[in-house]
Amino acid sequence: MGGNLKGIMTKADYLSELGINTLWISPFFKTEAYHGYHITDFFKPDPHFATLEDIRNLLETFHRRNIRIILDFVTNHCSVRHPLFQAALNDRKSRYRSWFFFNRWNDKYATFLHFSELPKFNLDNRETSGHIIDAAKYWLSMGFDGFRLDHAVGPSHDFWKCFNSAAKQLNDEAVLIGEAWLEGFGFRHLKTLGIHRKYIRWITGIHPQVVELEYRNVFDGVLDFYFRHRITEFIAWKENHRLYLDRLRNSINHHYAKFPFGFYLPTFIDNHDMNRFLFDAGQNKEKLRAALAFQFSLPQPPIIYYGTETGLSNTKPVHGQVPFSDLQVRQPMPWHKLDNEMIDFVRQQIAGWKNRHK
Known about the structure:
Blueprint: H1 5-9, H2 12-18, E1 22-25, E2 29-31, E3 39-45, H3 52-63, E4 68-74, H4 83-90, E5 111-112, E6 115-119, H5 126-142, E7 146-150, H6 157-170, E8 175-178, H7 198-204, H8 208-213, E9 221-222, H9 225-236, H10 245-256, H11 277-280, H12 285-295, H13 340-356
Parallel strand pairs: 1-4, 4-7, 7-8, 8-9
Antiparallel strand pairs: 2-3, 5-6
Helix pairs in contact: 5-6, 9-10, 9-12
């Protein structure tokens, strides 16, 4: 939507005063798409988003305020326009052919889900995995404090063990949070996933929580989609949500009991790929406050998607089959029309959570 890293820096005081201690920022690598996930070079920033100087200034600006920055990092795939994929596509004898999954008899290749513009990396190829891990090490060396790892169920566990080892050797405090969720996947997508015993489990039933738990030895935590679904079910979609708070808490406590102590399950009520909570709640800000209050009552790290603190919402639903519908939830921050009462409420929730978890 036209934003860049300089824009984030201009709001450093706002974010610091809000009370946040970590920024999670979208990919800023060279890209073929407005959102940054169709990457054509993992080592260079896209000039639309930033220069290397901008990135260093961003890190200095927020580290000076004791705010860490984690970077949204894609390992599973790249843009079809990536030069190395183009080399593999146009020459069957190219050394980069084995970096991807090509059909032996033609030029068809494996992709991320059904997106032909996103060829899947063969990360079991040591040279390929080395390229991606070197990129991660490059950004950690620059000063980033960790990664949110996109589509973590795509690469194999062997790859993630290597990734974890390399990251922790460089910075033992680097935090790795995986997006390990299977919603929206069908049988035809199984061949592109790196989870254990996937075909047998498809027949017997793949339980998302069990899949998340399998990453306890390669990540510091996984984004808690289970929480997001439950808080939508019991608050956003209920006429009188107060009647369901005990059921909601019992459900979350039962969920937490399945995970080992110290494994992070960061909570969120909305993100860049789904309807904002306020939309699902019928634009009812009372329900939004109730959801935030519940989120910040939990022991796990809470995530706020930008704009939620001021009641930013969408007017049309996000639908995976509707091109660009994600832009509904990626609108510019309404800096000239902030809900200061809601912002103060969120600031209080943050302060309360931090006081309880010093």
